[in-house]
Design brief:
This protein is mainly alpha-helical. It is about 75% helix and about 0% strand. The radius of gyration is 30 Å and the shape is rod-shaped.
């Protein structure tokens, strides 16, 4: 004897539950894990930036105090330029390493 089809309200209820479960599985759960990654990445980048600023100030104070009279008078801007160039250069190297194609060098 053939099975009777399910009534329409039951089919619609099952369809709604399936759609909600699919949406939760494919959107909400990945967004939660993405939120954790973004939060940890933001915290890490803020700490790295704070460390770079502290290192820059340290190098600036080192240049100002340990070079004697070299950067006195009209040459007092040179330590600031040196520290700026070093920080920009370091940032450029980090950016280049972070954005390189991982498949380079593979045959």
């Amino acid at each position: 004897m053939p099975e009777r089809p399910k009534p329409i309200p039951q089919v619609l209820t099952e369809l709604w539950e399936l759609v909600v479960a699919y949406a939760r599985q494919e959107t909400l759960l990945p967004l939660r894990s993405l939120g954790r990654v973004v939060a940890l990445g933001s915290a890490g980048s803020l700490l790295v930036a704070l460390g770079a600023v502290c290192c820059g100030v340290g190098v600036l104070r080192l240049l100002q105090s340990e070079t004697g009279d070299t950067f006195d008078g009209s040459w007092s801007f040179v330590p600031y330029v040196v520290v700026t160039v070093v920080l920009l250069g370091t940032g450029g190297v980090v950016f280049a390493l972070g954005t390189r194609d991982r498949s380079e060098g593979r045959a």
